[in-house]
Amino acid sequence: MTSTGPSDKDTLLAGHKQLAEFSYEKRPVIKGYNNRTLYVNVGSCRIVEKPVSEDMKAKFTGGKGFGLKLLWDAVTPQTQWNDPENEINIAMGPICGNTNYPGSGKSLVVSISPMTGIPIDSNVGGYFGPYLKFAGFDAIEVQGKAERDVMVFIDGDKGHVSIFEAPNEEVDSHVLAEQIMDMFARDEKDRKNVCSVTAGKGSEHAYLGCLNFSFYDERRKVARLKQAGRGGLGTILRDKKIKALVVRYSSLNAMSNNPADLATLQEAGLRLHREIITLDDQQCRMREIGTAHLTEIMDQYDLLPTHNFKFGSHPDSAGLNSHAFSAMVTHGLPDGCWYGCTMACAKAADGVELKSGPYKGHKVTIDGPEYETVAGCGSNIGVFNAATVMEINFYCDTYGLDTISFGTLTAFVMECWEKGILNAERTGGLELTWGNETAVLEMLHRIARGEGFGLVAGLGIRRMKKHFAEEFGADPKLLQDIGCECKGLEYSQYVSKESLAQQGGYSMALKGPQHDEAWLIFMDMVNNHIPTFEDKAEALYYFPLFRTWFGLQGLCKLPWNDVEPANNAETDEPAKVPEHVQNYVDIYNAVTGNNIDKAEIIKQSERVYNFQKVFCIRMGKGHRLGDWPPYRMMGPVTVEEYESRAERYDTQLKDLVGFDPTGKGTFEKLQALRVYRENRYDMLLDAVYKRKGWTKEGVPTVETLHGLGIDYPEVLEVVRPLLP
Amino acid sequence: MASLKRLGFDDSKCNGCGECMTACSLAFFKVDDRTRSAIQVDKTEGGWHINVCDQRCRLCVDECAAKALTMSRLGVVTLDKRLCVGCLACVAVCPINAMRFVPGLLTPFKCNVCGACVKKCPTGAIGIVAEEM
User: Fold this and answer.
1) Is A34 on the interface with B (CB under 8 A)?
2) What is the pLDDT of residue B1?
3) Who among A269, A276, A336 is closest to B65 (CB)?
4) Rg (CA), chain A
5) Are A255 and B106 an interchain contact pair (Cβ–Cβ within 8 Å)?
6) Which domains does chain A have, with CATH numbers?
7) Residue B79: CB partners within 8 Å, gap ≥ 6?
8) pLDDT at position A54
9) B31-60 pLDDT, tens per residue?
10) Is the separation of the CB atoms in A316 and A383 below 8 Å?
């Protein structure tokens, strides 16, 4: 499959030059924890293990909590993303790696993001996290910068860690992940025991680099890739000159995570397996097509981002609906990204012949696409051809580029083209009109080659806004309105204009506007279950905390509410899926031997959530202004948008704003609506901050931090100067 | 043409004595514990129903991510315990509960057509059937 460079295993191995090694005592996991983490510095070539204290477990739980705590201790307020002290931390959490409960194989990656300058966290599947845990560690911290390309290899079978120069391997992930299996697996049967974290050539030239976590698909006989997509993690990996982190572990069984109570864990898992197998085809069809089932639903509710979030639906969207992709993926395979996930949403198309780029003519397996990719690299850029979305998806993955940021920034440059800010001269001949598939793919390849306008696009929206204003004289206010980023991170793919709660869910998300912190559109806009500011604030308190918990445990969010018990609608709080919440209480207790209840789930999250908030403040960000969305995510920016939904907006002006639209010009109406919506958002911020125990500036109070038990001196030192 | 080996049964001959379950659990687990039997005898309105893997549907084979469930050369769906990671997806997907599981055990179990039950059945309600598919 390799198109360039040497692929022969012996040649690759011959190029390896060992720089450091470290042997450790192999010990069994105890109730979900190893009670130690691994520290690797690829600059100084130092490798050590660090103990995990009882306080660290009590306050930070695991997963993202551990990653953030280790990162806090490693950096200073002045640390930039590309400073050697910045770390890539991968941590799993106590529940991670069990093979019984669907969605239990997630790794949480934490680092100072090149896009935002604050901690990013990304939740990713693949076997690396579970294997690293069973190799003996609750987390790996990777610090330093290597002089030449290196790999880090953790051999969990032998209890051995090494850093070595790796000059000859490919960089693009779909090739490199296979090469790594070639080199480190003893034979075909052993390939499933080897997995890697890699990036790609795009990560070397763009800020939106992602990480690929591999797992071997025994049926397709290929290395599959799952992405830690958001926030430029791949960019950091390649800046550190790391080609790959590799782990091997070959003794997986139902007791590898050594739960306190295997029987309870098994029974909870079996209950959910049965629910999924029985109900999924009537509910979300995750087993058939994964999250790509959402496209037509979003289109129907006017939520599918189209032409840079201007609109929420499009007459051609059928070209991207779930059936278009279902016809392309291979069915009937157990497509979990970790063992025991019967939700099996990690779909893939096989034998797809590529039509462009360096791998043109190759027949490849393409993971996905997921909904976010369909919307971002499809409707939002005016592409309504499923095959093209597949090709963009493939190249983004192998180049190590985040499909969400790529989609949203491409939508932005296309609107800039439409508005005359960009032209062929400025893009090096790329005609970036809506739906120009050839131009989009060529821009993607130029990012990977680090060439021409590819370098500009690879800056991401925030830096492009500055560039376009300074270099091309574009109106900064317009760029601010249509550039769909917040905190420096591109928005994920839902139109939030008609849901105030979702505007907050996106823009108050600590790492930047990603839907994994809160997705409240149906509760708010469709079902009107949270009409008041207090209701919205309560939802924006509870759901981000509940969802944070998945990241503390090494869990996937999807089995929580992408399948629901048959009687869920009859429960008191269907949006919370109470039976599944109880499952999480049960499996946490079964793994750890602790005895928590559902309130403690929220407390565990609240400690880490507030710690992360203070971390953002410590890095000079995390202020109220940073929680403001671009107006495109709040309402219609342009006359064209307003007039496309004029009846809706006119009615709102009359009924909600008290402004009679009769006889008024569109521009005047736009302004009236904008004032109303911005005022409401401001009031939402007040309500949510209050509910979270923060000041009006969004700073956690001493009382809040004290109540959570995270009032460490270095934490209080950050907030004190900002408190009234 | 692939061969298939399975247990055949005739519910009308079954007297519900459960000797098959005892024999199975002794063969598999060396204990007399009918919950640990791959063959189950269920009471019905009119008598008894023998429930055991028919070796045909193979939903469990398709569902097994670890490829621990395969068709043996004899045509029996067989679990390789060394490959099984204990996820129990096979138990969930089995439409007749013939993939068996006891909480606390690391792996599930199923009928491998060993014939232990056939020998103990006093009424001849069970037999081994070999056929071509």
Assistant:
1) no
2) 60
3) A336
4) 24
5) yes
6) 9-248 (3.60.9.10), 280-490 (1.10.569.10), 500-563+596-722 (1.10.599.10)
7) B68, B69, B90, B107, B108, B109, B110
8) 96
9) 999 999 999 999 999 999 999 999 999 999
10) no
Domain boundaries along the sequence of chain B: 18-124
What pLDDT is recorded for position A369? 95
Closest residue to B88, CB basis, from A100, A333, A336: A100
pLDDT tens digits along A671-690: 999 999 999 999 999 999 99
Q: Which residues contact B14 (CB under 8 A, 6 or more apart)?
A: B41, B47, B48, B49, B50, B123, B125
Cβ of residue A639 closer than 8 Å to a chain B Cβ = no
3-state secondary structure of A261: coil
- Which ipTM score applies to this complex? 0.97
C-alpha A347/C-alpha A662 separation (Å) is 51
Residues B18-124, CATH architecture: 2-Layer Sandwich (3.30)
Q: How far apart are CA B119 and CA A515, in angstroms?
A: 61
Average pLDDT over residues B77-105: 97
Q: Is the pLDDT of residue B74 over 60?
A: yes
Among residues A505, A608, A546, A606, the alpha carbon closest in space to that of A64 is found at A608
Provide the H-helix boundaries in A461-577. 461-472, 476-482, 500-507, 521, 533-553, 558-561
Is the Cβ pair B107, A339 closer than 8 Å? no
**Which pLDDT score is estimated for B2?**
75
Neighbours of A189 (CB within 10 A): 13
Please report the sign of the dihedral spanned by the C-alpha atoms of residue A176, residue A182, residue A188, residue A191.
negative
**Does A274 lie at the interface with B, CB-CB under 8 angstroms?**
yes
Tokens of A427: 């893009």
Listed as ranges, residues in chain A with pLDDT below 70 are 1-7
Of B62, B85, B91, the CB nearest to A99: B85
CA–CA min distance B22, chain A (Å): 23
Q: How buried is residue A349: exposed, middle or buried, by Cβ count under 10 Å (0-12/13-18/19+)?
A: buried
- From CA B133, how far away is CA B130, in angstroms rounded? 10
Nearest to A540 by CA among A574, A503, A572, A513: A503
Chain B residues within an 8 Å CB radius of A343:
none
What pLDDT is recorded for position B133? 73
How far away is chain A from the Cα of B85, in angstroms, using its nearest Cα? 4
